[in-house]
Amino acid sequence: MNIKIKTQLLLVLLMGSLSCLAETGPFESEFEGYEEGQEENKNLPIFAAVGSGFNYQGELLNVGVAANGNFDFSFGLFDAAVGGNQIGGNVIKGNRPVTNGLFSIEGIDFGDAVYDGDELWLRVTVRETGNPGSETTLSPRQKISAVPYAVQADYLGPIGASNGDVLTFIGGEWVPSSSGGTSPWSVSGSNIYYSTGLVGIGVTNPSASFHVNSPNVVPAIFDGGSSMYVLYRENGVNRGYIGSYQNPSTPGINDEDFEIGTFMGSVGSVHIATGNNEPRLTVTADGDVGIGSVSPMADLMIEADDQGEVLRARINSSTKFHVNGNGGTAIGAYSTPPADGLYVNGDLRQPLASNGFMKYMVHVYCGSSPSIVKQYNGIGNGTITVSGSSAGQCVVDFPTNIDNRYWQVSVVYGSTSASGQKAANCRLDTGSTDKLFCNVSRLDQVLLVPGNIMILIY
């Protein structure tokens, strides 16, 4: 007889059902002493059944053809996939009908004592009823995973257990904790709790109420829905949370955002502390940020001592802004500024309407062929030009209106002799607000002469 069987093992396990495809092979008879119509659990330990039975379903093929008729089945548990030791005795289910290859065997029960947490393999043999010698052992054995074994509901009544009870395994049987077993957990409705000690996962001597010791890179995961957060309380009062509480419908808030904050309505601050638990960064309930201060008096406040540096900003590894402990500030480069003073590396610019900085500086040659010797534009909005055709006279044209600014004109002397000493004056050119009409003359006589002048516009 060439028998193949496709099976599904329906075992009452916490992990669900197990299914596999079995092959055929020879075996030594497991049906000795079995008479047709008889069922038995041979050589089983004497333990009360605790709902450890399971069902076995499958498809039986005989030389590739779906089998029909009655067959005898024998089941045994082993501690290895090949060879090994048999655990307990055989369970024989005889004279079972097979129709179009399909069969279902219920109530295969080895007793709960064999399920001690070790891995087990199920061996199955089959033969035609009334035809000794036609036995076939299915191979390979089918593995039953080493997981905790659930107790069936029909066992709860006989042992006095009721809904919500905690069961304890004692000496080969399950009993409710109230029937002599002990459990650290207490039940309250659909909840369980523990309040008399510390709880450890991966550690036998926990040092906190909940202590996790794990070699994994991610020792814990909190997975929730939208607006999920972990809440922290102090003496029953909500203090803060970590998570994604903010509503993504709020402008600027996204589902990907993550927060650390105080609880809604709190007037407390959020502190980031280092060292000896000293607050280094504080965000108040009003949103003010303090660095080195737990009571910032501005949107951003830095509190520092007079030692070393207070603030530094760098661009491409080069310092561009520096506040020193001496109270001074350096802009444009790293340099120790004067105490309570300002050091600037680079040009200064400001809008035309603002006061304080120079707007224009220009060195002009006034002659029959005037020219700009050099210039500085403190506004940065154009170029200064000069025109003219008479000796000692020129018109200086600025990029902006200057009639509401201040200007100063001086002669750039080329000689200290009486004939070389000159004077210069400028006025707004007729009908213009952005041009200065300038004259250069000798001091010893009223005479226009070519010369160099310097104009400063404030």
Written overview of the protein:
The protein has 458 residues and is an all-beta fold. Among the domains are: 3-144, Immunoglobulin-like (Sandwich), CATH 2.60.40; 153-183, no CATH class; 309-344, no CATH class; 360-457, no CATH class. It has 1 helix and 36 strands. Strands 1, 2, 3, 4, 5, 6, 7, 8, 9, 10 and 11 form an 11-stranded antiparallel beta sheet that branches. A 4-stranded mixed beta sheet has the order 21-22-23-24, with no helix packed on it. A 4-stranded mixed beta sheet has the order 25-26-27-28, with no helix packed on it. A hairpin with a 5-residue loop joins strand 31 and strand 32 (393-397). The chain starts with a strand and ends with a strand. Residues 7-29, 35-50 and 146-153 have low confidence and may be disordered.
